[in-house]
Amino acid sequence: SPVECFGPEASARAKDLLDGERVRLEYDVETTDRFERRLAYVFREGDDLFVNEALLRGGYAERFRDTPNRRYVDRLIAAEAAARRENAGLWGTCRR
Are 8 and 2 a contacting pair, CB within 8 Å? Predict the structure, then answer.
């Protein structure tokens, strides 16, 4: 499939956050989506950084909406909204 707008930047940022780091995965109601992709909340073990939230807040990701998983939904919605307001990352680069 074609590379999405801001995809290379998002991939590089995820690598920066995770390369060489140990992580803890938390699961919610669904553990995979309809394409068998794993759905998890990712936390770095060293400093407990909530990686999903960090990627959203920086504008490197868009919240996955097609899931019943709700454990951190308020935090994730707030992080994405902040990125949108600030035109961070993909929100300032890509047409939406």
Answer: no
